[in-house]
Amino acid sequence: MRFASILALIPLALSLGLLANAYDDTVDRREYIEELSTREDYSLLTREILSDLSTRELMDELSDRLDRRGKYTCRVCGTTFSERPSGSSAVCKREKIPHTTFKGPNGKYTCTTCGRSWNTPPKGMEAVCRETIINHQLQ
């Protein structure tokens, strides 16, 4: 047998392989079409169920679901929101953290957090080291 005749068999084998894949594809398409036809039965069944409900019943159910969905309550302060707060409305409280001071050997009072120092113990607004913002903790 010649080498040229073996080369002629390669395209023949490839075409047979493609033909077999095409046959498998037609089977998948038939199954897909059958699946679509059964879906129509479900949509008809859904239409029948919805036709039994009145408009008033549907509106009542939708309003109940909206009422349940739109409530956010803060665990810290107890405030209730209709929608999720953002920006400045998301701030629950501002907590003022005082300086942690100690009297050093030089007689000055120094904060261990920020490093500032005073000759006398800080009082009033001067005693605030920093402010932290605590956001609402929603449930």
UniProtKB/TrEMBL annotation:
This is Uncharacterized protein. The keyword Signal applies. Keywords: Signal. Residues 1-22 form the signal peptide.
